[in-house]
Amino acid sequence: MAPKALDYESLNENMKKVQYAVRGELYLRASELQKEGKKIIFTNVGNPHALGQKPLTFPRQVVALCQAPFLLDDPNVGLIFPADAIARAKHYLSLTSGGLGAYSDSRGIPGIRKEVAEFIGRRDGYPSDPELIFLTDGASKGVMQILNTIIRGDGDGVLVPVPQYPLYSAAISLFGGSLVPYYLEETANWGLDINDLRHAVFQARSKGITVRAMVIINPGNPTGQCLSEANLREILHFCYQENLALLGDEVYQQNIYQDERPFISARKVLMDMGPPISKEIQLVSFHTVSKGYWGECGQRGGYFEMTNIPAQTVDEIYKVASISLSPNVPAQIFMGLMVNPPKPGDISYEQFIRESKGILESLRRRARIMTDGFNSCRNVVCNFTEGAMYSFPQIRLPPKAIEAAKKAGKVPDVFYCLKLLEATGISTVPGSGFGQKEGVFHLRTTILPSEEDMPAIMASFKKFNDEFMEEHEDHRGYSRM
Amino acid sequence: MAPPVSRDTLNPKVLQCEYAVRGEIVTIAQRLQDELKAKPGSQPFDEILYCNIGNPQSLSQQPITFFREVLALCDHPAILDKSETQGLFSADAIQRAWQILDQIPGRATGAYSHSQGIKGLRDAIAAGIEARDGFPANPNDIFLTDGASPAVHMMMQLLISSEKDGILCPIPQYPLYSASIALHGGSLVPYYLDEATGWGLEISELKKQLEDAKSKGITVRALVVINPGNPTGQVLAEDNQRAIVEFCKQEGLVLLADEVYQENVYVPQKKFHSFKKISRSMGYGEEDICLVSFQSVSKGYYGECGKRGGYMEVTGFSPEVREQIYKVASVNLCSNISGQILASLVMSPPKVGDESYESYSAEKNRILSSLARRAKTLEDAFNSLEGVTCNKAEGAMYLFPRIRLPQKAIKAAEAAKKAPDAFYCQRLLNATGVVVVPGSGFGQVPGTWHFRCTILPQEDKIPAIVSRLTEFHKSFMAEFHD
């Protein structure tokens, strides 16, 4: 009989090539164990609320009121909602074309895009055009849209950092493009070497690939490093010289845990560099409500901002956005609130600041606790988490462990992470899911477990790790090449 | 040096796809709306009426109170502990919110969920499907998505590897399908619905188009059926549905059933039957047919377009294939939680005996009976126009009248470099402020012209629309009569 449409063999090959380890093998195994009753600590995804972080109060009040506008007419609404939340809800409802239940403009509600533009203007000191800002159902959808617009076929390459957040590799696979890796240097704090970049581009071109764009993740995921202004200038010069569009994933811009390198947007540096560069480099910047101190992952809210993209291209991007009609309206309101939070003098300001500071300061402490905790473990070396939400320790697996992994038919870091999971319930993502240098192994965990739980988690990890190393080391000792 | 991302260097599939629902005519309408705002009285009409898009709440349809109560409580669960909340929300809404929150780990509605959607909500949806059809549904077959559209994209992505892969689509069709197929690099294989028989679907036409495609070297992978139809509004008869199921089974095609208008049926002689129900009642199980059913929170009587909620129920697939679908869903992590909750509410609304049942029922019936009235009023209005025939809208939210344009009009359209129906629609917009979508956006038999108009403007606006439209049409026909 003829092969059926949905036989495995007949499926889109590009789809089959896609890998997304964040919810891959480890996660599935962890879910299985959880069903069997084992206590699992999910540190595989940057999902703060799932690990006990509370939502900020003010945005939830505003959106709840927008969901149920009949509350606004109730004389008793003031008993459980503060006046400024009520006012904001009315304001956002007036910006919609019929409340939360109507499709908005396919680019997002104009009034909210204006708020985003104003936020960018305040942040960077340069005006931003709301017409070039598109709200999306999460930053991931925006990334996919832009990559889909750029990639014509496997002859098109996109420079992606290694290690990277595997949305990029997955999207490039799905759209049939070529991933051109550039390696971040672990011993230099996950720094970026322009010579490496040049080399990567040269190699790709010699294989007949047209390198179209470069992705930077700043702060980095999984690596957490914050790019310096000098770094960003170098990168922008490079893109200018090599004629690359720059995709700036800046979703962790609120998550900064050191003071030497505060967040600077790629756009600000670009504008600072002045013409001709500032008028030529095609830049798309991405942001989200899922990270920062908001952590509203479940809302699926994000935006991308385009700089120096030709009008015709913007039209095409709009056209594709219009097929999906509009991004979800509640998340658009979350985005508006994020870029335009309560101000000094507002009724909810004190509470908002207290909640936000509390989260950020705690994240900073946890970044330190985790880094130090990993560094105290045998054969584990961990760069400090300068930003974002993850720790990415290097696990120096002894040859015996690598052997054991091979025997079990598993990639070494997957083997280690599975053992870690079974022993401690800690669910991580093996470094191979993000890319790493050959023969070097890592795992990614989040810094999101609550502060109260952290000491026990790190102790549990240390116990497992040190025993594992003890068991797998031969007594000649192991040294990294 | 040419900039890296310019029109010449974009993905050609992006350049190729089109989506008329928010296309050119809407851009013109928005401009006119801005002009009207800046200079009131500058146009021969007071307001722009967007009849181009199935967006009920933008035209003052009210949301279902019970649903919004539950959603508000789930958005801000902190108030559930306050005694004042009892006075502001109905008791069963509070109860339902608690029930839903208990199904979410940590009651964290701001957390990414399982990539198929929260398990407890899928259970409720599966139960709703079973109650609707009389046949069991498996929560693991359900993938909650940000509206039905992303689910359609996922299936197209799965099925299409190259332009050699064809998808049978009805003509006229909702242009998500043509756009999605183009975007994924496949081939749209058209099958024509028969206007003369109320947009009937003939199996002989399906067979003919399938053979035709095969002879051109195209492997046809799936059949799209939109029931109730968009833009055409027909509700398929059961025996028609059985023949379609049989056809898909025989030809090894995936049946992609767009069932988003399942709650919009306006004629007593027709009922909605899901394709799954039809298949199972024919004795066909998972081994016999691959079937995907799409549902959305955007239509029905709830009209919650802006929430982006929906799901696809996927049956008859091997575990390996299901794994691939899960994998792609996981790259986006999950769909928005509020939309997921709403999808579960739509599939398991208040029941008889619940505190909110009476008011919920009244709201639902009010909306549905109003839609039925508006469908009839506009159908009659279109049929009264010279040279215009309009099939009944048995379901969905649209009318798709056929306009017979005089030669003079067609020539004028050509001179203006527009399709004749686009020319007519733009003239209509300029004269009346009513925005409709030219039939060419949906596909039609060559040489015939249509436009799609929604039945959504509020009832009190309908008489004015009808009279403005009638007046415009008279003068248009007078201007261009041969």
Automatic annotation (TrEMBL), chain A:
TM region(s), chain numbering: none
Keywords: Aminotransferase, Pyridoxal phosphate, Transferase
Chain ranges of the Aminotransferase class I/classII large domain: 85-454
Pathway: Photosynthesis; C4 acid pathway
Superkingdom assignment: Eukaryota
InterPro entries: ALAT1/2-like, Aminotransferase_I/II_large, PyrdxlP-dep_Trfase, PyrdxlP-dep_Trfase_major, PyrdxlP-dep_Trfase_small
KW Repressor (keyword) present: no
Cofactor: pyridoxal 5'-phosphate
Similarity section: Belongs to the class-I pyridoxal-phosphate-dependent aminotransferase family. Alanine aminotransferase subfamily.
Complex formation: Homodimer.
Name of the protein: Aminotransferase class I/classII large domain-containing protein
Organism from which the protein derives: Hevea brasiliensis
Lineage of origin: Eukaryota, Viridiplantae, Streptophyta, Embryophyta, Tracheophyta
From TrEMBL, chain B:
Family to which this protein belongs: Belongs to the class-I pyridoxal-phosphate-dependent aminotransferase family. Alanine aminotransferase subfamily.
Domain Aminotransferase class I/classII large per the UniProt entry, residue ranges: 104-461
UniProt name for this protein: Aminotransferase class I/classII large domain-containing protein
Subunit structure: Homodimer.
Keywords: Aminotransferase, Pyridoxal phosphate, Transferase
Listed cofactors: pyridoxal 5'-phosphate
Pathway: Photosynthesis; C4 acid pathway
Organism whose genome encodes this protein: Hevea brasiliensis (Para rubber tree)
Superkingdom, taxonomy of origin: Eukaryota
Keyword Transferase: yes
InterPro entries from the UniProt entry: ALAT1/2-like, Aminotransferase_I/II_large, PyrdxlP-dep_Trfase, PyrdxlP-dep_Trfase_major, PyrdxlP-dep_Trfase_small
CDD domains: AAT_like (cd00609)
